Amino acid sequence: MAWTKYQLFLAGLMLTTGSLNTLSAKWADLFSAKGCRDDPDHAFSHPFVQAVGMFLGELSCLAVFYILLCHDRRSPEPKMNPGQSFNPLLFFPPAMCDMTATSIMYVALNMTSASSFQMLRGAVIIFTGLLSVAFLGRRLAPSQWIGILITILGLLIVGLADFFSGHKDDKHKLSDILTGDLLIIMAQIIVSVQMVLEEKFVYKHDVHPLRAVGTEGFFGFFVLSLLLIPMYFIHVGDFADNPRHVLEDALDAFCQIGHQPLILLALLGNTVSIAFFNFAGISVTKEISATTRMVLDSLRTLVIWVVSLALGWEQFHGLQVLGFLVLLVGTALYNGLHRPLLARIPCCAAMVSTEEEEENSPGERERLLGDGRVQNGDES
Predict the structure, then answer these.
(1) pLDDT digits over 229-272, tens only?
(2) In whole angstroms, how far apart are CA 221 and each of 57, 226, 251, 330?
(3) Among 25, 12, 90, which residue's Cα sits nearest to residue 271?
(4) Measured between alpha carbons, how far is 271 from 204 in angstroms, rounded to an integer?
(5) Rg of the chain (C-alpha set)
């Protein structure tokens, strides 16, 4: 069945904003400007300030939810389900996981390339699958176990590509690139804990997805904004790239923005894109399918890689292409994208049917896979 113009618009919006989210964050990292003192120009290395901006984008989803709800209630036949009443503090634990993982990933983005950053985030299905088996009592289908193993292989190939390219990279040290890669994978463990918490405590309350994203954004924005104060006084030595060598120098970030206004444009691009990406992702799932959403999410990794090459942010490496393809296969198997193809083959149709019966319902799997931020996390 052909897509409508609205469905095409949603798919394009998700692909565009999802790509812009990572690209704008990386663009901000590439700027250099003077700070608040007489220090020379230095790189804009403020991952926690960037994370605050990302949560502001998530928080805006709460405003969108109430605008849509008011508009729906004014219509003669309201169709929007606002969900049950709930205790907002249920979102606090997953929001803290989101805050921690996002901050770690923005630190890592300073150390590695945008394409590797996006590819390595595919590790989330490994830990989400394992944790869902351990704590939610799920039974993964054989194809999902194979998908996890293939994903691990893809991660190793991407890491190997970064190892070889690190010897030729003038922008980053090899040790920084490998550390950044490890931080991204470590962040995916925290993201998978967030998903399991959401599945176990949040989604059973039938909370509207935009409201869920916005509530977590509120907690993340509020808590991380407060943490910027003690971070200003915590010295971490050479781990930090800011002149004072503190965990985060928010004042230096604002001064750099004043000297180089394009940094503000990059930060706004990150904030606005994450808001639209969450909305588009939820709408694609509703209007088209969760499968389409997973395909688009994989495609944005390709878009980020191509744009980074075109802008000269990184160099072409054949191993990275191989790693991307292997990760794509692993993700496709885990999410069941192979089933429509196998179902057309008579000898495989029965096997596909059996596998679908053993697996959880599509709605449960969709919730487990997150709401767009981690398939970005947000993108998180």
Answers:
(1) 999 999 988 777 888 889 999 999 999 999 999 999 999 999 99
(2) 9, 9, 17, 34
(3) 25
(4) 29
(5) 21
CB proximity list for 170: less than 8 A, separation 6 or greater = none
Which residues, other chains included, contact 77 with Cβ-Cβ below 8 Å and sequence gap of 6+?
none
Checking 212-215 for CB contacts under 8 A at 24+ apart, the result is 212/91, 212/371, 213/58, 213/61, 213/62, 213/278, 213/371, 213/372, 213/373, 214/58, 214/59, 214/60, 214/61, 214/62, 214/63, 214/64, 214/65, 215/62, 215/88, 215/91, 215/95
- As beta bridge partners, residue 32 has 43
Q: Is residue 317 classed as helix, strand or coil in its secondary structure?
A: coil
Query: 33 in the Ramachandran plot: left (φ > 0), alpha (ψ -120 to 50) or beta?
Result: beta
Question: Torsion angle, CA of 122/126/132/134, rounded to 10 degrees?
Answer: -160
CB 266 within 8 A of CB 62: no
User: Which residue, among 282, 281, 290, has the nearest Cα to 335 in the 3D structure?
Assistant: 290
pLDDT tens digits for range 135-165:
877 888 888 899 999 999 999 998 888 888 7
On whether the CB atoms of residues 182 and 355 are closer than 8 A, the answer is no
**Helix/strand/coil for 335:** coil
Q: Where are the alpha helices (DSSP H) in the chain?
A: 5-29, 47-74, 92-109, 114-120, 124-135, 142-166, 174-197, 209-231, 250-259, 262-287, 290-310, 318-334, 339-343, 346-358, 362-368
